[in-house]
Batch of 2 targets.
Target 1
Amino acid sequence: MMLNTRFAVVSESRRCAGSSAGTEQADAAVQTKHAFFMSSALGFLWPIKTISKQVGPVAKQSTSVLEKADEMFENGHYKDCYELLKETGDSQNVEVQWRICRALYNMSKEPKHDSKYKKELVFQAYKIIANELNFHEDNFAVQKWYALLLDSKSSYEGIKERIKQLETVKKHMDLAVTLNPNDATILHMLGEWCYQITELPWHQRKIAEVFFASPPHSTYEDALEYFLRAEAVQPRFYSLNLLRLGICYLKLEKEDQAKYYLKLAASYPAKSNDDHLANKEAAELLKKLQ
């Protein structure tokens, strides 16, 4: 169920949804690839690094710190970003707190850390964002990061817990898009949720039936609608959004539209692990269509 998980991360000012938070080498690359091909596991490709900025009212003294933290984040210096934000001691500032969560989450995607430490980072971030949610339900970034971190946390708690949290994850993504309907990243995340639910393997559907009177349901048409909306808001902002568009059109047997987006994904400038994955998968699909 994770995309990275990839849900991915890139320059926040350049894209709303980014590429991979750090190129996952060896095992991390393999893990991402498995999620990418969606063979048997529920695997969300969450955008990682550039989940867009959402700056609310902040005190003037905090503005420069936030700008510096954002710059560090966009340059991939997640630990430095985290430490700078922690040094402010501003535990009451929601703009500081959700950025701390963002930094922790991206640190958890760095291949240099072991799985135990990655889990600790995710749980630490989830605890912070869950607390912020109690006081800032109307904050777009809080809703978005709560959805992503709840999914990430539940992934460490087993497939049953992950499936159990599916509806809650989507609920908070829906709230986020209501607060900011023009954020390409959250629209992509909703498209990814719909895509993964549509692709859910039989045995995981049976697990879902245990937790829900009416298990989550979606279609490729639903996923396509969100991916198209994301593209309309910010054209070509994310290689995997282009890839997903191509795949959805293939699933719907619309080959011409599929080829159009797959060609865009195959030629997308590769600046991240996500971009390389999109390039490769799109090229392979195009070969099959020749």
Target 2
Amino acid sequence: MLIVQSRNSASTSGTSIATIGSWVRGIIRLALFAPIASGSAQRIPDSIAARAVGASFLNAMQAGDWTAAQAFLDHAALERFRQWAVAQAKSRSTISSVTVEGLMMADTALPRAVAEYYVKRSKNIGRGQSFVDQEFGIANPDSVARLPIDTVGARWLELHDERWLTRRAIRESNCPHPVDSVARPPATHQLGIIVADSVAYLLYEFDVSELFRAEAVYSRSPHVMLLRRDRDAWWVLPRSDLFSTMGIMISCEVRPK
């Protein structure tokens, strides 16, 4: 028997689930041994274990359960990405705080007009959306750095999901379109898996119309989920190609008054 238990699984004896203040990070346990008739144990192939984790992650994503989905992510890789994103946001903030006097002190041969140009340019860059805001929905990098890693994972998954992006596009377009009508993403099915030592590549695709079937001219390539094994458990690596969308287009009909 193969058991897939997410990090969020926890005993709630004597405590109502509604009163739990925070999710407890547990361990995804894979029962890698199954009894056979002789009473000995047989190791379940890595391909089956990795596929089970991948399927659980995809099911949680389709259901829009970001807390459940993030529990299958490789948190070590996610933490490295968080630290890099915070560093990028802070370095961008440092660039935008450059002053004319500071530049001219650093380079005494620099004309004031050139220094003013660089300061103006750096401020224009700083006005754009910060990298941490784009990835996690929070503009302040220090706030992102203090978030629990479970929250970081859930926010990262949600902000890159097609439903969230569609709702944002509807809001920004001022289109009279009910947000609740945003369609649920299509189901997925697995095509195969390749396991190489502690790394697995899971191929899957979304159920699509006939226009995008594999034999069609405009067919889409399968998605590849990368999983890593650590201590006999498989984890989904956080990668941008986990998401199906390349952009959101909203069609809005506006009737003249």
